[in-house]
Amino acid sequence: MTQVSMTVNGKPVSADAEGRTLLVDFLRNQLRLTGTHVGCDTSQCGACVVHVNGQAVKACTMFAAEAEGAEVRTIEGMANDDGSLGVIQQAFQDHHGLQCGFCTPGMVMSAAALLRDNPKPSEAEIREYLEGNICRCTGYHNIIKSILAASGQEVAIAAE
Amino acid sequence: MSVGKPLPHDAAALHVTGAARYVDDIPTPADTLHLAFGLSSVARGSIREMDLAKVRSHPGVVAVLTAKDLPHANDVSPSVHDEPLLSDGAIHYKGQPIFCVAATSHLAARHAARRGQIDYDQIAPILTIDQALDADSRFEKGPLIWTKGDVEPAISAAPHQLSGSIEMGGQEHFYLEGQAALALPQEGGDMVVHASTQHPTEIQHKVAEALGVPMHAVRVETRRMGGGFGGKESQGNALAVATAIVAAQTGRPCKMRYDRDDDMIITGKRHDFRISYTVGFDDTGRITGVDFTQYARCGWAQDLSLPVADRAMLHADNAYDLPTCRITSHRLKTNTQSATAFRGFGGPQGMLGIERVMDDIARKLGKDPLDVRRVNYYAAMETKAEPGRGKRFGGTYSPKPAQTSNLTPYGMAVEDFILHEMTDALASSADYSARKAAIAQWNAENPVLKRGIALTPVKFGISFTLSHLNQAGALVHVYQDGSIHLNHGGTEMGQGLFQKVAQVAAARFGVSPETVKITATDTGKVPNTSATAASSGSDLNGMAVANACDTIRDRIASCVAEVQDVAAQDVLFDNGEVIAGNARLSFADAAMLAYTHRVSLSATGFYKTPDLAWDRIKGTGRPFFYFAQGAAVTEVVIDTLTGENRILRTDILHDAGASLNPALDIGQIEGGYVQGAGWLTTEELVWDDEGTLRTHAPSTYKIPACSDRPDVFNVSLWDAPNPAQTIYRSKAVGEPPFMLGMSAFFALADAASACGPHDPALMAPATAEAVLAAVTRAKG
Ligand code: FES
Ligand code: FES
């Protein structure tokens, strides 16, 4: 066991973890931030995406100890300071970008990383960027719509 | 009114903030144990010797259980007690749980579970359909056979005949949240189980059996699942039972979640099928008779295989009136995972058979497959004659000469067939004919890439075919502040059931949906529920909830009516108000008034689907309340040198009746289509000769990704009320759109057909490899 310290969603945290503890398990078990999900354990599904020093990272591919001293952001840190939903979160709600919701935190985190680097992505760029995020429910259509809407681009009415 | 509004999913705000809790997210006491199964490494045989010393000595291990440590029933089958939780000595498939480890952490349990030393006496496994047929390894005594008319003469007398066969693979559910359960021991031997399940009552039943207690001692709660798709109808029993047994024995909370590999190796999948056929037809392509033989690979235990195979038979006609027909169904027992429920429940497999027949007929006659499909459609829904309005002879309401019987192969009259109009509307909005011609032109000019297009219909029967399952219960409370607590037997797996039913409750009370609190499915609140399956969730639970709400509403109305001195039936509930004569009360004030007048503000509701009668052995009766329908056009392009392919455009028109929530219904249609297309294209399950599932992770099993979705994707609802008396005349929408994915498969076959004059005989899934093989066959 070693002490691992990092900043998570703006708050300094530290907890004991084994050297082999994955970042995703550290967040979920030690810090009880269970919004970061485990969908595959093998770095394919993207349900565990968080930001480490601003980069989108699959938290199941990284040891907690590797994030020592890092700035980590999880889905729990994505709302506005007043507690209202962030732009991307709101867009996923408004444009029905979720069904079972299990992939949603990873989708939102990936979308945030994309929009930071590319504020007005094309539909093709969104698809390519989300290649590492699996959704079994939605067929992706509304997820893409949500991200387009979050970037301030035109989307057809969700459903009428 | 709240019904019909495109409101977001009830938990959308929780999902986008990460606050929505799944089983693995529920805070657990510090002494919680974690479980893992030790699995068999052979597919068939028996255990000669088992040494678990290294498992027991592994750091963190608290308990290790084998079959003989189980106090009561060693069974997790949902049907016939043929599925031991832990092997009783016999091994039926590779990946079968043999022992169970409880340890202080998930990782310790998994590590320890790998350390068992087991020697087996092996027997050659039965893995394939042919091996099972050779060994006569099957469920039920022999094949089930249904017939309509005299099929052989009808086929042989027809101007044309053809025969063929199609293989179709199974499908892994890949619910993004794996199977999970948490058992919390209570005083006096009671048990509370949180399970990721579509069927809390079944979990309660199996846990009670395993603990040797009455069902009242077990309470099961399910707030949500991270996807189910049928995979959580019975496949979660093992985890729930294991956690409950260890919790009872150790007195400590127990949690179990399968890692993805374990999940794919242990749990059942969609049944793979072979369907062979002989058909007779005339020059227009109209079928005179068809003889189907369906072979279902069911795996090692019966599970839900009989009703799945029945539903495949029930959908052997899809949208087509078959004047004569025979359907023979073999339910084969193999040494593989026990195939189970999966969205469509056998329906997709049955339909793929008849759709292949349509394609074959069209090829043989040199016709557009859509024309062949249309000529075989059931007759359109008749306008019901109203007394005194019909002309005497030859008028609109006079009986038409029966061109077709409009009876399904199982003798049910098809009275609500709307696919003629839907097909016309879709073919026109998708510009089918012009695109078909343009594609032929394009193919003539392009030697390497070829395009294809197909329009396929879906007619899916709604109701559980085990008729007694078509019942539901609800429990509704109105509190004195006017807030409403809603509970019913349906479970939420992402399909939006909770929101749709809450919209119904809000509409009954004339309040806004925010007034209604949606609560977790709980066997302590509504007992004896059916699985949330067969697309029946909102039909059944919506009605049960409406009945409960109406009981309370009528009580409030009587109370307000008495106080205001008006008739109870004149009291209106609208827009958050209760209006009685000149008096307008807020709903909250009305609730308070009723409370102070000592009126009960709590009620149960119950519903059972009417008019069902079904004999599954004879194959006759009325198994369905109504049919949900839809149609899709898909255009694809293939690379004839590699078999690689893409979906270019999809247009869908789907019938959700008068939709309770069009946004959620469209979401089901989009997701269902993509999942159905995945089944028939990229999702390939591979077992080797030893019975090892080689595709047990997303690295080798390819479910559709974001880039696999069609470039152009137009989805519309056919918004017409259901003629059957369902809740607000809506229609079930969970499963039917899955089968719209067939249009992708037949578009690929169409593209392969463009490569040469021969039958491409495309097999499912149409992976790049399968497409390449089809191209090669077409070239001859
Ligand atoms: S759990 Fe990390 S990518 Fe799937
Ligand atoms: S919403 Fe269920 S996996 Fe994406």
Task: Give the gist of this structure.
The complex is a heterodimer of chains A (160) and B (780). By secondary structure, chain A is of the alpha+beta class.
Please work out how many helical segments of chain B DSSP would assign. 19
Q: Please tell me the total number of domains of chain A.
A: 2
Distinct small molecules bound, one entry per kind: FE2/S2 (inorganic) cluster
What does the overall shape of chain A look like?
A: globular
Percentage of helical residues of chain A? 25-40%
Approximately what portion of the residues of chain B adopt beta-strand conformation? Answer: 15-25%
What does the radius of gyration of chain B come to? 27 Å
Radius of gyration of chain A: 16 Å
End-to-end distance of chain B: 61 Å
Largest interface: A-B, 57 and 60 residues
Essential attributes:
heterodimer; A: 160 residues; alpha+beta; Ubiquitin-like (UB roll); DNA polymerase, domain 1; 2 domains; 5 helices; B: 780 residues; eight-stranded mixed beta sheet; five-stranded mixed beta sheet; globular; binds FE2/S2 (inorganic) cluster
Describe the structure.
By secondary structure, chain A is an alpha+beta fold. In chain A, about 30% of the residues lie in helices and about 15% in strands. Chain A has two domains: about 1-80, Ubiquitin-like (UB roll) (Roll), CATH 3.10.20.30; about 85-150, [2Fe-2S]-binding domain (DNA polymerase, domain 1), CATH 1.10.150. Chain A has a five-stranded mixed beta sheet, sandwiched between helices. In chain A, helix 2 (about 85-95) packs across helix 5. Chain A is globular, with a radius of gyration of 16 Å. Chain B is built from 19 helices and 29 strands. In chain B, strand 10 (about 190-195), helix 6 and strand 11 (about 220) form a beta-alpha-beta unit. Mean pLDDT of chain B is about 95; it is low at about 385-405. The chains are: A alpha+beta (about 160), B alpha+beta (about 775). One FE2/S2 (inorganic) cluster (FES) sits at the interface of chains A and B.
